[in-house]
Amino acid sequence: AEAAAEQLRLYRRDPEGWRRCRSTGEVAVSWRPSSEFAGNLYKGEGILPASPHNVWECIKPVAGGLRTKWDQNVKDFEVIETISDTVSVCRTTTPSACMKIISPREFVDVVVMKQYEDGTMQSAATNVEHPLCPPQPNFVRGFNYPCGCFCIPVPG
């Protein structure tokens, strides 16, 4: 979990190579080739007219959290094992897509949540296997490289 958090911090600090692929008035999505796997990294950025605390409440990875209510790509989120007050092993499921042509997915990740002195909040996760969460029938087991979210306070 700590390695995933550090990798995300490195991506955040390195502005090189990101190319914008989509943007609206609220969100910009960029990509760049990954150095870890044969594919691309993606990041979305936006400024929300809300307090950092309220935004964090919507995105933080906790059981019973708000993410399953607003994110159509997250069907369920459960904690498999609590390691500490900031680290846990979690299972996230996604619904089928494209008129059920794409099967539902499940992801098992070790997740860490951090808060920094400047008020930035971070969740970081990466794939892990766990004996209490073997692959489930009717789901395709997905694999996450280091991924997560930053909630960064901005003036005003």
UniProtKB/TrEMBL annotation:
Keyword entries, A-Z: Lipid transport, Lipid-binding, Transport
Superkingdom of origin organism: Eukaryota
GO molecular function, one term: cholesterol binding
Domain START, chain residue ranges per copy: 1-156
Name listed for the protein in its UniProt record: STAR5 protein
Record's function text: May be involved in the intracellular transport of sterols or other lipids. May bind cholesterol or other sterols.
GO terms for biological process, alphabetical: cholesterol import
A Pfam family hit: START
Biological source species: Sylvia atricapilla
Kinase keyword on record: no
